[in-house]
């Protein structure tokens, strides 16, 4: 996460009177992440994460995110559990922002995932999709085609200040995806941002998943495509087919893909690359003065987009259907 909003000691002390969490020992801003303000909170009852929801998070979506974490934890997924206050509510306000406290998970995010960690995240993703079944609330993906169109309109005229020709490439890509996006595939609750920094591992195994603030209802295979983008490229930009095969096999061993899902993976991977290119580009062009945040490189996702546009088919990603 990042820190956009500061919380003073008095406001925090007052806020914590609403919970049974004991006395504050310390609170530190967390520099990682880009979306919300996050703090590591230590009290006499343990360690917690305090999140203040910022810009891209609509308040109307918060009951979905918080209810989803409650649902997934109850279904046995290792994810943060919202801490409910004395009045039973998990969501309240602090420093003028909606705020929640969640349980702290142990583990390390892999900086450069191993093949075995890729296999494990594939299995964990399928487990997340399974655990999400039966969740009563729904949320459409605000960052699917219609959302991309809005982001393109916001960024396209300034895109060439980041890379010559980027505006044209983005406009062409959006047009391609609008005419090739699958109409219907198996769908349900997806994480939609399962990057390495949102996964904790102990050794080769995934030990926990965090950051459900992009979760929504969309195609399961799109979530797999997001993971292939985030986990299977090396720091020099090279696609690692061994990691992709491990990730895909980890997923399909737990949840086999239909023929239509498997065939759609290349275009879904292309869409996922455009989605992260656009949000990164938007953040790059609209930096918040004074915020503790490290904007992410949009060009990394331009390069991934180019890779997917050349992919020969689902076998590029080690994918076979059931
Ligand atoms: N429940 C948690 N347990 C332990 N660490 C956490 C937890 N939630 C967040 N963090 C830490 O905060 C960082 C940012 O969290 P994240 O949810 O990814 O933020 P953002 O939504 O702003 O991107 C993580 O990389 C991790 O270090
Ligand atoms: N994963 C996205 C940015 C969202 O940040 P996160 O910290 O919530 O994962 C990206 O890499 O562009």
Question: What would you say about this model in short?
Answer:
The chain is built from 9 helices and 9 strands. The chain is an alpha+beta fold.
What is the level 1 CATH name of the largest domain? Alpha Beta
Distance between the termini: 38 Å
Report the radius of gyration as a whole number of Å. 20 Å
User: What's the architecture of the largest domain in CATH terms?
Assistant: Alpha-Beta Complex
Number of domains: 2
Q: Would you mind describing this structure in some detail?
A:
With 322 residues, the chain is of the alpha+beta class. The chain folds into two domains: 9-103, Phosphorylase Kinase, domain 1; 115-317, Alpha-Beta Complex (Aminoglycoside 3'-phosphotransferase, Chain: A, domain 2). The chain has nine helices and nine strands. It has helices at 9-16, 62-74, 115-131, 145-155, 166-180, 220-231, 241-254, 259-285, 298-310, and strands at residues 24-29, 37-43, 46-52, 92-94, 97-103, 187-190, 199-202, 205-209, 216-219. β1 (24-29) and β2 (37-43) form a beta hairpin. α5 (166-180) runs antiparallel to α8 and α6 crosses α8. 41% of the residues are buried. The model has no long low-confidence stretch (mean pLDDT 94). Bound molecules: adenosine-5'-diphosphate and ligand LJ64HWYM. The ligand N[C@@H](CCOP(=O)(O)O)C(=O)O binds at residues 33-35, 193, 195, 197-198, 211, 276, 279-280, 296.
Structure characteristics:
Phosphorylase Kinase, domain 1; alpha+beta; 322 residues; five-stranded antiparallel β-sheet; binds adenosine-5'-diphosphate; binds the ligand N[C@@H](CCOP(=O)(O)O)C(=O)O; 2 domains; two-stranded antiparallel ribbon
